[in-house]
Specification:
Elements (H helix, E strand, L loop, with lengths): L3 H4 L6 H52 L7 E3 L4 E2 L4 E2 L7 E6 L4 E7 L8 E6 L4 E5 L5
Antiparallel strand pairs: 1-4, 2-3, 4-5, 5-6, 6-7
Length: 139
């Protein structure tokens, strides 16, 4: 009669464990780069939203004063452009600058959102044209 204690041992073989480790490695290799791209795209939404606020406030200011405001001014985390009622949040990743005259303005946001040498740079002008001059997510 066979001893039932030898046959009742349960567990995984080394091959089965290695296959599971390989599968987890493949899934991680696919998921981590996608997560990083999505994360940096989400960070870019800060610049887009604040630049759109600057656009609306500059247009409002021009309606009241026949000129755009904040020429040559720069603001970063915790700062702002009080003349056009814009405050930059304390944890902002970008630095914002405005160049303006009586008929036009350009607001620029630049920041390093993924700790590489490339800066992420966005601009909006008096027509509301929002463009990415340097995309930090593509480097």
């Amino acid at each position: 009669m066979l001893d039932k204690t030898l046959n009742s041992k349960k567990g995984f073989t080394l091959i089965e464990l290695m296959i599971v480790v390989v599968i987890i490695g493949i899934l991680a290799a696919m998921a981590i780069p996608r997560f990083m791209r999505t994360s940096t795209k989400a960070k870019q939404s800060e610049a887009k939203k604040i630049l759109k606020q600057i656009y609306v406030c500059e247009r409002t200011y021009r309606q009241e004063n026949d000129a755009y405001a904040c020429n040559g001014q720069t603001a970063s985390a915790g700062g702002g452009f009080p003349e056009i009622w814009i405050e930059i949040m304390q944890n902002a990743r970008y630095t914002y600058s405005i160049t303006a005259d009586s008929n036009s303005f350009t607001a620029t946001a630049s920041g390093n959102i993924d700790d590489d040498p490339t800066l992420d740079t966005w601009e909006i002008d008096e027509t509301g044209n929002l463009v990415c001059n340097s995309d930090d997510t593509s480097s």
